[in-house]
Write a structure and sequence with these properties.
By secondary structure, the chain is an alpha/beta fold. The chain has one domain (3-357): Rossmann fold. It has helices at residues 3-18, 25-28, 57-65, 120-123, 150-163, 176-187, 215-221, 226-230, 234-245, 256-265, 269-280, 282-291, 313-318, 337-340, 342-353, and strands at 35-36, 81-87, 90-98, 102-106, 128-132, 169-174, 192-198, 301-306, 325-330. The longest helix has 16 residues, at 3-18. It is globular, with a radius of gyration of 19 Å.
């Protein structure tokens, strides 16, 4: 390892030693043309996507040929197509499959669309499921002239949904995606049927109270180039991401494949910087959330926290901006509910997003029924 690399890894180690020595997020932080390029398996995939202008993949190929760092190709998921969709100033990677009403999945940090792979096949039995890589993350392009706020991101995702030929959607969002999901519902209220958010609070309504419980908030929000200089090689990146994945209450729930996928996705400096930029926009996000809190959203909102993580505080936060909030706790889960308890999540999500509001819920799932 170089002297610079040793200094970087040592800096990360010092930061890790300052972190609260407990497992589980609750203990840390009471806080154009679409290019489709892969499908296999038995899930009924979307038959056709609108013909628009090719975008994204040629740029990635050119970047590789020029020596520019780009993330590895996304893993494939049986039954789902993958592709790139052009939006103003950007091109977003998406994974799509299933049939029926559209369900858009918004991942958190430091993950990619892959965090949903355990639940997507089940959800695709009743919905057209679209999982995006957020702008600048995963296999999505680094956006230009982009502020990384929740409102900016929601606007690009809405553009992408429209470019794919869809209108009304429901949204399932986790972590960083929670604020984006709220912004999408607030900006496009006539286009969102239902919203389910997992294990995060909104900026301005609770999340800021958690910033002192884990050093990653302050590190990521620090002005450039502080985090970029500290997490500046593979060893430092892996050490940092492993710390974040320790917020799972069930350590083996995040597999070696999950970790290797996300190590690769955040291996390039530009992608890491994009992740930090989402955190640097938190102050602007708080202003957006508080300024748009009234009138409250009237659509059904399912607010799920891990029992060993945010718990009921997810719903407490959402009641500040929505009038029909369902309080749900994922038993025994830490921060990574899709990985730690995919069975609970798919059962609850299937009930919540089902259009039949007269359905009887199994024991323990009554709060998952829509209003």
């Amino acid at each position: 390892m170089s002297h610079a690399g040793k200094r970087s890894a040592a800096a990360v180690a010092r930061l890790l030693r300052k972190a609260i020595p407990a497992r589980g997020w609750r203990r840390y932080a009471i806080g154009g043309l679409v290019v489709a390029f892969g499908v296999s398996g038995a899930v009924a995939a979307v038959d056709a996507l609108p013909a628009q202008a090719a975008h994204g993949l040629p740029a990635q190929t050119a970047a590789r040929n020029s020596g520019v760092c780009v993330p590895p190709a996304s893993p494939t998921l049986a039954g789902f197509q993958q592709g790139m969709v052009a939006v103003p100033g950007d091109s977003l990677h998406f994974v799509i499959g299933g049939s029926g009403p559209v369900l858009v999945l918004m991942h958190g940090w430091p993950m990619t669309w892959w965090e949903w792979h355990t639940v997507m096949p089940s959800l695709a039995k009743t919905h057209t499921v679209i999982a995006f890589d957020l702008p600048g993350l995963g296999n999505s392009a680094i956006p230009t002239n982009f502020g990384y706020t929740t409102a900016d991101t929601a606007t690009l995702l809405h553009d992408a949904v429209t470019a794919l030929g869809f209108g009304n959607v429901s949204i399932l969002a986790h972590d960083l995606g929670v604020g984006i999901g709220y912004a999408y519902a607030r900006l496009y209220p006539q286009s969102v049927n239902r919203l389910m958010v997992l294990d995060s609070e909104l900026n301005g309504f609770g999340l800021e109270a958690n910033f002192g419980f884990s050093f990653h908030f302050d590190l990521n929000m620090a002005a450039s180039p502080t985090p970029e200089d500290i997490i500046n090689n593979r060893e430092a990146e892996v050490a940092y991401l492993n710390y974040l994945y320790s917020f799972a209450n069930k350590p083996n729930a995040i597999t070696s494949q999950d970790k290797n996928t996300w190590y690769g996705a955040y291996g390039c400096p530009a992608n890491r910087e994009a992740g930090y930029n989402y955190y640097r926009a938190f102050s602007a996000d708080a202003t957006f959330d508080t300024n748009t809190a009234t009138p409250k959203l009237t659509l059904p909102v399912a607010a799920m926290g891990g029992a060993d993580s945010f718990g009921t505080s997810v719903a407490t936060s959402m009641t500040s901006v929505a009038s029909d909030v369902h309080t749900i706790v994922a038993p025994d889960s830490g921060h990574y509910i899709p990985e730690e308890d995919p069975g609970f999540l798919t059962e609850c999500a299937s009930l919540f997003f089902n259009q039949n509001t007269s359905e009887t819920a199994p024991n323990g799932f009554a709060a998952c029924l829509p209003s």
